Every structure is written in structure tokens, then in C-alpha cells.
Amino acid sequence: MESDGFKSVVDSYRSERPIYEIVCRGVEARLKAKLHAAGIRCTTSSRPKDLASLLRKVMKGRAPTDIRDKAGARAIVTYDDQIEPAKEVIRDSFHVIKEDDKRETLSASELAYLGVHFDVEMREEDWADDPRCVGRLCEIQLHTRAQNVWAEVSHDLVYKTGHDITKNIERRIMRLEALVEIFDEEVTRARQAILSEPGLIEARMLYTLEPYFVRFGGENFDQALSIDLLALLRKTLDADEATEFITLISRFVEQNEQKLEMLFRTHIQTQPPNPLLLQPEALLIYERLNTDRFKLLETWASHYPVSLLRSFSEEWGIPLPEIG
Amino acid sequence: MDLGKLEVMRLIVHEVPTRRVRAEGESPLLSERESPLEADIKAFFRTKIIGTLTSRKAFEVTLRSEGDSPVPGLVTNLLDSDSAQPDIVEPSKQMAQHLYLTQTGVNPPGLLTLVVGALGDQRAVAVLKLEKEQGARAHLDNIEGKRTFTIEHLRELMLTEGTKVFKASLFWLETDESKAVTGIVSDEQQGYVLRTDVADFFLTKFLGCELRHDPRRSTRDVFVATQDFINGIDDPMTKTGYQQALLVEMRSNQPTFNPTNFAQEHLDVNDRQSYLDFLRGRDAPVANVKKDVDLIKTQIRKVQMGFASGVEITAPPEVFEDEETLKVEKEGDLAKITLRDELREVHGK
Known about the structure:
Chain A is α+β, with helices and mostly antiparallel strands and 324 residues long. Chain A contains 13 helices and 5 strands. Chain A has helices at residues 3-37, 51-59, 83-93, 102-105, 145-161, 167-196, 201-215, 223-233, 239-243, 245-255, 257-270, 282-301, 306-316, and strands spanning 42-48, 71-77, 95-101, 116-121, 138-144. Chain A has a 5-stranded mixed beta sheet with strand order 1-2-5-4-3. In chain A, helix 7 packs across helix 8 (223-233), helix 7 packs parallel to helix 10 and helix 12 crosses helix 13 (306-316). The longest helix of chain A is centred in the first third of the chain and has 35 residues, at 3-37. Chain B is α+β, with helices and mostly antiparallel strands. Chain B is 33% helix and 26% strand. Chain B has a 7-stranded antiparallel beta sheet, sandwiched between helices. A two-stranded antiparallel sheet of chain B has the order 5-6. A two-stranded antiparallel ribbon of chain B has the order 10-11. In chain B, helix 2 (71-80) packs antiparallel against helix 3 and helix 6 packs antiparallel against helix 7. The longest helix of chain B is centred in the middle third of the chain and has 17 residues, at 215-231. Chain A binds chain B through residues 258-259, 262-263, 266-267, 269-270, 272, 291-295, 297-298, 311, 313-319, 321-323, and chain B through 2-7, 39-40, 42-43, 46-47, 50-51, 54-56, 120, 260-261, 263-265, 269-270, 272-273.
């Protein structure tokens, strides 16, 4: 390509870049909202493609008009078994032009980068405020945390080696890729072992509560505090409630979804003085207030200040009895 | 109604000073536009309203169709309005003026606050009187040429340790065919002894409301349902204890009966929630009941006979009229009591 052509590409992209920044923000916001609504904790990021990256593709022979992934967003989940549900969410939330799951395209004997890539568009009505964004593609990369670390490290490692790497270096890289795959699998196995371990009841309760907490916008919380509170709160459950804890919470959330969404939204905005209101076990406290506020009060008062529980009762609208 | 669904959306504040009838006093300081609200102010009011209206001083009310108060009409118009954003400036000004004119020198100054919000999918209107321990003239701001209390002023006026929401009311439309306006009113400073001008000021004179349920019927309904619950208790000693506690509560000087607090104070922890669930299942009151024992006075009265030896006999009045069960005869200066009945329990006391 002649220098005039490159200049034209550069100028064109510089004028378009602000539009792609809007596209990135819009896609990332929807991606995060939809994944959280599905109870999938994730971190997201986005940015328009670097000019250098664009020029590199042009220099390799791609026509500028063929380079459509000028916006990129990334969602990083914790566990490998969250990838499939996350894929489903992305398919439901965007118009998917292309989907590329590296795990499905690799043969059994191959080891390589294992992310999932989507080329997506948002709908025309989503860009009512900025029609310039209509039809603009965005590439979504879906990774586990381990895959993300490897993606960033390998980008630095592999690109610097150039095109001709020795078999020795290739083997080293493959071993690192295998480590990432094994790490993800073992993390998933460890989580499943925790969920089936007889003594770790509070951990299982927290695993049940956390997706709903994420769904209502909860992000960071104190896990050790959660375990302590759940150890107390589970004393208020009878045998049936303890056995059917997942159903108990699921039913409660379903019956009170609008109210819970409103409460968590308010607390996230206002950051109230009682930090327990923004912990996952808040869901169980509200459920206990609904079901048996007396047992909750009696159990709670033996360990923690009642004032902390009263703020829950005021938020939920169910009065606690006065105690001497 | 689930008060936990309350969301505060709009709010306007007017300052209402003490009205000194025989001297020149200040007049209300009226806002000309609603206050711009931030999330923390909305959350503050939400929590305060819910906390006040779920207290022991809260009762269900209806609007009176007759009376001098303009509040029922103003509240009804706001709830009925088809507009997504009905005007709240003029109605609230009228409420503030009415509050000022209704008060006397014994009523402290305060901030008349009109709140429009939602209870789930329904519009809700709250009328509050906030009082500060130390009166202070508010400095108003001017937004787009109109006077109002802004966020900083609201924080200074309201979000302080000295702020109390003593008088609160919340109204909504029933979802049944009646579409009647129902509400809850709480006056933390008063019991509802509706026979004094001071006591009924907020409920009757200012808001133009009356208690939704006849206290005599409510008292009877909760008493009967509680007795039925107690009769279902297996253990005779527990049953006796609960029954005595109920009679004590009903005979006490407390102006209200609160099932939640009754459960907490007198029932075993394993029976408390069951009791409330039982009341609910019987459509008996589970919130505060203004106590009036007129319809149950014979049932809560017991006759007690005491003897020089220390023996005491306590029984409902009707037992003393049934000589097959309890016969009282005079033998000279002594009394002879013949009791023919099934012995249920013997226990130390």
C-alpha cells in the first residue's frame, strides 16, 4: 500500500475512533449487566483497537474495509464451568455474527489458546441516541481468569519470538498452555469437591447465595464475614429448610425479586453505614425476617448487636419485636 | 401492604413555624418547587417512613369524606392523577398552610414534607411532619428563579441526630374494585386516645382521617383468634401461662395490643411465628390494635376468692354461677367450697 493509502487509513480511523469508543462502552455495559443478571460474576473491559494494531493488519495485506473488529470487549469469569452459561448469555444479548470457541476447534492432540471469541452487533434500536454506531461490530473475548493471564503473557511472549520459533520453544509454550487448561479444570474440581464435602455447609450456602447477590448488582464482599454470619444464620433453619436450602432461596428470590432488586440498587448507590446490607447473606437475613423473625432475633441477639438486625428489618418493612 | 416495597421518588418541604394566636408570628416558609433529590436523601426518607409506620404507634386509617381538612382531597387527587408527574407544589403548600392554621401554641414547629413514591407498582403519597430539637430558620436556595430546599439544606435540616420523624402517614389506592384510599398513620408522640384535642390533632384535625377498623371489633377479633391459638397448644402448663398472659395484656392500661410484641414477651420462641401465621390465617389483626375491650369484658374478667389459709380460687364469672362445678356455701363464719372438676395439672408456683 502506498503511503497515501496508509495516511488515508490513519486519518479515517482517527475520525472513527470516538464512535468505536461509544460502541465499546455500550457493548461492555450490556455484557456486564447481562452476565450479572444471570448470576455470573465477571470483570469486563473494553477498548477500541489500537491504531498500531490496525496498521499491522493492513501491512499484512488485509483491506481496511475488511477489518471490522475495531472495537473489543472482554469478559473474564472465575471458573471454567461458567464459560458455557456465559456463552448462552452473549448469544441471547447480542446479534452474533461469528462465534469461535477455540476448545471446539482444536483436535485432541492440540494445545493452544482456549478463549471464546464472538463478533457481535447491538440492535439498531440500542443505538437510538447515536445512530453512527449502528452496524459497528465488536469482538467479545470470553476467558477464565487463567486464560486471561495466559492471553496477556503469551501475547508478550509469542509475538516477541517472531515467526520462526524452535521446537524447544514451541514445546515450552505448549506446556504453559497445558498448565492453564489443567489449572482451570482443577479449580472446577476443587469447587465441586467443596460443594460435596459434608462439613463445609456455610461454603455451600454462600455458593448458593452468591449468584443472586451478583444478579442484584453485588460485587465485592467480605467472604470471611459471610462464613461467620452463615454459621450463625444456619441455626435458624429447621432440618427441611437446611436440606432444601437451594430451593428455599430460589423461591424467596422469585417471590421478592422486584423488592430485592430495589433494595440492592439503593444500597449500592448509597453505601449505607451497615455493611452487612451489601453482603450475600443479606438475602438470607431478609428471607428469615419473612419466615421467622423471632428465631432470627433470638439467635442473632446472642452474638451480634440487635441494631444491625434492626436496619435489615427497617429496610425490609417487617418490624422486629422490642426486646428487653 | 408490604411497606418494604416503598420507593421515594419526589419530595417537597415547607417550614411551618409555631403559630402564636395572640401575637405576631412567623408564617410558613413555602417552597416554590420540589427539592432535587439524591439517592441518599431518598434512602433516608424511605427508612424513616418505614421505621415509623411499622412501630407500635402506627394504625391503619381511612380518609374521612367530611371534615375541614383539605388533605383527604389533595391526597386522593395525587393518587388518582393520570399524570406520571402530578404537581406536588400547590397541594403541599395547601397542606402546609392547613397545618399552620390548625396548630396552636403547644404544637412545635416543623417541616411539612410531602413525598410521592411507589409501593411496588402503585403510587404512594406520604405526608410527614419532621421536627428538630432546635429550631432553625432554613436558608432556601433559588433554582431557576424558584425557592426550594436543596440537598445541602436538607442534609443540614434533616440528616442529623436531632431529627425525628414523629408524625408520618402513607396512603395508597386499594387494588380491589373499591379503589378506596387506605393509609397508615403513626404519631410517635401520642397514644391514640381520641378524646383530647392535642392527642387527635395529627390524625383527625390535620390529616382528616379516622381509624380504619373499629377498635372494639379489632380487639375482639385478635383476642378470640389468640385464644383459639392457645387452645391448640398441647402442653397444659404452657397453655395456662399463655392464657394468663393474654388476660393480663387485655386487662392492662396499655392503649394498644401488638401481636408481635405479645408473642415476643409471652410465647415460647417456637410458637411465636406460628402464632402470627395463625392470626393471619384467621384474618385477625397482626399489626397494632387500638385496644377497646368493650365486646370482651366479660371474657377477660375473672373472679378471685382468697382465704385466710392462703388458698386462692380464680375462675371465670360463669363458673361461680354453675353449682354443679363450683358450689359456695356458708357455714357460720366460714365458707365451704365444693369443686367438682377434672384435675388438669398440679405445679409449684
